[in-house]
Each structure stands twice: as structure tokens, then as C-alpha cells.
Amino acid sequence: MDKAYVAILSVAFLFLLHYLVGRVAGGGKGKRLPPSPLAIPFIGHLHLVKTPFHSALARLAARHGPVFSMRMGHRRAVVVSSPECAKVCFTEHDQTFANRPHFPSIRLVSFDGAMLSSSYGPYWRNLRRVAAVQLLSAHRVACMSPVIAAEVRAMVRQMNSLAATAPGGAARVQLRRRLFEFSLSVLMETIAQTKTSRSEADADTDISPEANELTQISQEIMPHLGTANLWDYLPFLRWFDVFGVRNKLMAAVRWRDAFLRRLIDAERRRLDDGGDSEKKSMLAVLLSLQKSEPELYTDTMIMALCGDLFGAGTETTSSTTEWAMSLLLNHPEALNKARAEIDAVVGSSRLITPDDVPRLGYLHCVINETLRMYPAAPLLLPHESSADCKVGGYDVPRGTLLIVNAYAIHRDPAVWEDPAEFRPERFEDGKAEGRLLMPFGMGRRKCPGETLALRTVGMVLGTLIQCFDWDRVDGVEIGMTEAGGLTMPRAVPLEATCKPRAAMNDVLQKL
Q1: Which residue of 128, 141, 354, 476 sits 20 to 30 Å from the alpha carbon of 298, by its own alpha carbon?
Q2: Residue 438 lies in a domain
Q3: Nearest CA to 34 among 93, 85, 96?
């Protein structure tokens, strides 16, 4: 009986302590805080973290409203799931939410806060300026177009060769690997003016060593990043490294850094040997800046920027294209409509060029609808409030995490009719104008690589549609289950059959 009494008192004490800590962290008396689900002492709402987290938060928003609060261990968070409140956060309170939270996992993989995910301030502003002006400006992206076109041709050539040896002339391909290697090849050429090392003879066997290496590095790092990582919120998990997260992350980071160092050293040697040219790689630009301002453009900063470009430019681009192909395979009428447009605008005597892409209106509708339904970052990278403010009529105290659920916003039935349906036509003739679409974020923290991403996806998706007849394996409908993590890849990689189109045979034979 005494033991039971002590247990009851202990539980009561824990709940009281949790309540008092929550009141203090919530800003004290007189605050109108957002509604919140029932919390558990010390862990808060971490028991509600399910995979995929964006779907779990969307379900909570349906119960608690478009603005609600959560306690992630010792951190308070506010979750925003409506376009109106998201606009307020990134317009009226854009500077207030310009900061990023200091997650231990992010610090381990970001060169101790040297990447674009760094805290808002002079260092970040300079990093952002370099990325937006020197590396990813409209002019730079236009200069990259020949590289994108060349890598698209190489990918099509490999798939055409694979189909030529397949039964019935239709090859079964796993698109994820092909698209990831394509994205990596574009970045390797534009960042370091080097190519992946797989020969044409190996086209039907495996991906390049570089793509394989970066894939493995990504698989080691990505699961431990993002808002749903318990390791960031429960200190005892870090103190004792219960799941070996620190060791796994550090090993992957050392592997990644060695990969980046090889690229930088090779480019530095090339420049020292007089290999500079008018077509400067991104690394050549950064190393030139380093010579004039070495204290600012350190090797760490250069590695951080390259890490950002590889991290944001491979997985997201390939994943978006994979989702688009999945949707088109399940909606053959949309696939046929996109192909008919390409045939009418481009014809069948040549491949799509970068100049053609802006004229392919329906193709852009397909891409926009894909980004609406399956944004590459379903929960925008988290922000943190630097001052007290109000969102949706609620008080948001300083130091609160801001989690914006772009996935839920893009599927808001009050904004989008039948939001779970794939309808590219909703973007035709400006019908979606004024509706919030934010796959690349919003405000001053918006992704600077949007122009490059859209151009790359447009080129590769359009060319795949133009050159091949696509079909589902054994006619089975493509599953659309999402995996969790910082990005939103398919739970199962997409496999499909591709057969060269008879109308494009002459073009394909000349590649």
C-alpha cells in the first residue's frame, strides 16, 4: 500500500513539474497559446511522432486547428497548416522567423553551423548572397543548360541501349537510381567540372561509383535529420548515445567531407595548372573568391556550400521527377496529353532543348501538381522565433520552433478542390493564381536553387516523355506510399517499363 501511495505521489509530482515547466517555457501568465494535444511529462508530444511525420501533423491539425502547439521534449513548437497563417509567418513576421533552431544533429553535419542552415546573421547573409548571386543566379543557371541537356542525352542513350537488348524492346528500369545519377552528374559537372566515372559499357549494370558513394552517405545522414528526430529533443539519448546516432553521423560526415575534399583539391590543382576558362565551375568561382578574401572564403565555407548543393540538388530533384512519373503512369490520359503537347511544340526530329521547356505549358502544370501533392520538403526546414509574436490570433513566445506543414497546406480542401486527386489542369490558364504553393519555402529563407531545380526537372521529365513509351510493370497500379524523413521519397522505388517510341527512332539512333 505504501509503495502504491509513493507511486501515485511520484506521478502527481511529475505532472505538476511538467505543468509548471510548460507554463514558464510558454511565456507565463496572460499568454493565449495555441491549443495543444495532451502531453506526457518530459517527453511532451514525442509519442505522437509517427512516420511520415507530415501526415501525422496533418491529422493533428484536423483535430486541433491550423495553428497548434506541441512540446518536443524540452522544446516548444508551433505547427502551422493553413496558407493564411503561413503567409503571415513569412511576410509580416519574416525576420522574426528567419532563424534556425540549433539542433545537435544539424550541427554535426553542417560544419558546426557553416551551411545555409546556419543561424540568421551576417555570416548567413553573405553565404546566401554567394549562393544566389555567384552560383545559382538566372544567368548561371542559363549557363548550366547545356550541361543539363548533355546529361539528359546521356541518360536517354543508356536507357535506349538497355531497351535494345530487352525482350520485346521494352526495358524494366528502376527510375530512382537513374534519376539520382542524372542529378548527381549535372551537379558534378557544374560544381567541379568533372564527370561521374561510369563508362557507357556499364550502363545496364550499376550506377557510377560517385552516385553509389553519395547514395550511401545520404542513406546514413538523412534519417537522422528533420523535425521528427527524437535524438535532438531528449538529451539523455545524446549523453549515452543510446542508438549510436552520433557515431553513425560522424562516420557519414567524415565520408562526405573526404568526398568534397577530393573535388576541391582536384579543382585547385586544375586551376594551378592553368586550367581556368570562361566556363568556370562553381568551385572555380569560389576558389577565385578565396584568393581575394581568404579570411571569408575559407575551405570550410566552400565545403559547406558544396555540401548544401549536393544535399539539396540530388535527392530533391530526382525524387520530384520520380513522383511525377509515378503520377503519370497512374494517369495515362495526363501522360498522353503531355506527350501530345511535346509533339506539337517540339516535334519528333530532335530532342527537347532548354529553350523549349518554357513553351510546354501542360508539362509545367504536371510539375506544379506534383510539387503540390508531393513537395520534396513536406515540412519546411524548421524556423525559430527570435521575438514574441502572434500567429493566427495566438501568442508565439520567443524561442519557439516553427513547423510549417507544406504538405497539409497544399492539400487544404478549403483551397484546392479534391486535393487528393491528380489534376494538372487546375494550374492551366492561371486558375491557381493566388493560391499558396510553397515547395521551395517562402520569405528570406526560401531555397535559392528553385530556378535550377525547375529547369532540371522540366528537361528530364519532358525528354523521358518524348523519347519513350512508358508502362507499369505487369499493369499493376503504382503504389503511392510516402517514406518519412527530411525529404519525402517514395517508400518503394519506382519501377516501370520503357520502350523507345517509333517516332523518335531516328533521333535516338544518332545519340
Answers
A1: 141
A2: yes
A3: 85
pTM: 0.90
Tell me the three cell numbers of residue 432. 491557381
Which residue bears the cell 544533429? 105
Instruction: Enumerate residue ranges in the chain where pLDDT < 70.
Output: 1-29, 197-207, 242, 275-279
Let me know if residue 427 belongs to a domain: yes
User: For the purposes of burial, counting CB atoms within 10 Å of the CB of 463, is it exposed (0-12), middle (13-18) or buried (19 or more)?
Assistant: buried
Q: Residue 101: CB partners within 8 Å, gap ≥ 6?
A: 75, 382, 383, 384, 401
| 112: in domain | no
CATH number at residue 461: 1.10.630.10
CA distances from 449 to 132, 138, 305, 313 (A): 8, 10, 12, 8
**Cell numbers that stand for 386 in this block:** 527570435
Quickly list H helices, 229-314.
235-239, 245-272, 282-292, 299-313
Q: What is the pLDDT of residues 284-315, one digit of tens each?
A: 999 999 999 999 899 999 999 999 999 888 88
Cα–Cα distance between 66 and 55 in angstroms, integer? 14
CB 409 within 8 A of CB 66: no
Cell of 8: 501515485
Amino acid at 232: D
Cα 344–chain centre separation: 33
